[in-house]
Write a structure and sequence with these properties.
This protein is mainly beta. Helix content is 0%, strand content 57%.
Length: 91
Protein backbone atom coordinates (compact mmCIF):
# COMPACT_ATOMS: atom_id res chain seq x y z
CA UNK A 1 0.00 0.00 0.00
CA UNK A 2 1.35 3.39 -0.98
CA UNK A 3 0.18 6.47 0.86
CA UNK A 4 0.45 9.77 -0.98
CA UNK A 5 0.70 13.08 0.80
CA UNK A 6 -1.40 16.01 -0.41
CA UNK A 7 0.55 18.79 -2.12
CA UNK A 8 -0.34 21.42 0.46
CA UNK A 9 0.65 19.32 3.49
CA UNK A 10 3.70 20.64 5.33
CA UNK A 11 6.03 17.97 6.66
CA UNK A 12 8.55 18.78 9.38
CA UNK A 13 11.06 16.26 10.67
CA UNK A 14 11.26 16.22 14.47
CA UNK A 15 14.92 17.16 14.88
CA UNK A 16 14.66 19.44 17.92
CA UNK A 17 12.45 17.21 20.08
CA UNK A 18 9.46 19.44 19.42
CA UNK A 19 7.31 16.33 19.95
CA UNK A 20 7.93 13.95 22.82
CA UNK A 21 6.16 10.58 22.95
CA UNK A 22 6.59 8.52 26.10
CA UNK A 23 6.91 5.87 27.36
CA UNK A 24 8.40 4.40 24.24
CA UNK A 25 8.02 1.47 24.05
CA UNK A 26 4.65 1.45 25.78
CA UNK A 27 3.72 -1.73 27.61
CA UNK A 28 0.03 -1.06 28.29
CA UNK A 29 -0.85 1.04 25.22
CA UNK A 30 -1.03 4.32 27.13
CA UNK A 31 1.09 6.97 25.42
CA UNK A 32 1.62 10.56 26.52
CA UNK A 33 2.44 13.37 24.09
CA UNK A 34 4.11 16.66 24.86
CA UNK A 35 4.36 19.43 22.25
CA UNK A 36 3.48 23.11 22.06
CA UNK A 37 -0.05 24.07 20.98
CA UNK A 38 -1.33 20.71 19.75
CA UNK A 39 -4.33 21.10 17.42
CA UNK A 40 -4.63 17.65 15.82
CA UNK A 41 -3.32 14.15 16.54
CA UNK A 42 -3.27 11.31 14.05
CA UNK A 43 -2.04 7.80 14.82
CA UNK A 44 -1.31 5.41 11.94
CA UNK A 45 -0.22 1.80 11.93
CA UNK A 46 2.79 0.55 9.97
CA UNK A 47 0.58 -0.03 6.92
CA UNK A 48 -0.49 3.63 6.81
CA UNK A 49 -4.00 3.03 8.10
CA UNK A 50 -5.27 5.80 10.37
CA UNK A 51 -6.38 4.25 13.65
CA UNK A 52 -6.96 7.46 15.60
CA UNK A 53 -7.75 11.00 14.53
CA UNK A 54 -8.34 13.52 17.29
CA UNK A 55 -8.83 17.29 17.24
CA UNK A 56 -7.72 19.06 20.42
CA UNK A 57 -7.81 22.66 21.61
CA UNK A 58 -4.24 24.04 21.76
CA UNK A 59 -3.09 21.74 24.52
CA UNK A 60 0.55 21.03 25.35
CA UNK A 61 -0.04 17.54 26.80
CA UNK A 62 -2.31 14.73 25.66
CA UNK A 63 -2.76 11.09 26.61
CA UNK A 64 -3.67 8.41 24.08
CA UNK A 65 -4.66 4.77 24.36
CA UNK A 66 -3.43 2.60 21.50
CA UNK A 67 -4.94 -0.88 21.40
CA UNK A 68 -2.85 -3.67 19.94
CA UNK A 69 0.87 -4.25 19.91
CA UNK A 70 3.04 -3.08 17.04
CA UNK A 71 4.71 -0.08 15.46
CA UNK A 72 2.69 3.14 15.17
CA UNK A 73 3.34 6.63 13.85
CA UNK A 74 2.07 9.61 15.84
CA UNK A 75 1.59 12.77 13.78
CA UNK A 76 0.85 16.02 15.61
CA UNK A 77 -0.19 19.28 13.96
CA UNK A 78 0.38 22.43 16.00
CA UNK A 79 -1.49 25.74 15.89
CA UNK A 80 0.97 27.10 13.29
CA UNK A 81 0.28 24.21 10.90
CA UNK A 82 3.62 22.53 11.53
CA UNK A 83 3.58 18.74 11.51
CA UNK A 84 5.73 16.57 13.76
CA UNK A 85 5.91 12.81 13.45
CA UNK A 86 7.39 10.22 15.75
CA UNK A 87 7.14 6.44 15.89
CA UNK A 88 6.07 4.55 18.99
CA UNK A 89 6.22 0.85 19.83
CA UNK A 90 3.41 -0.78 21.79
CA UNK A 91 4.18 -4.14 23.42
Amino acid sequence: MIRLKPKNEKVVVDINNALQVYPNPSINGIVKLTAKSIKKIEVSDMFGRTILLKAVNNTDNEELIINGSGLYFVKVTDSNGRIFTQKVFVK
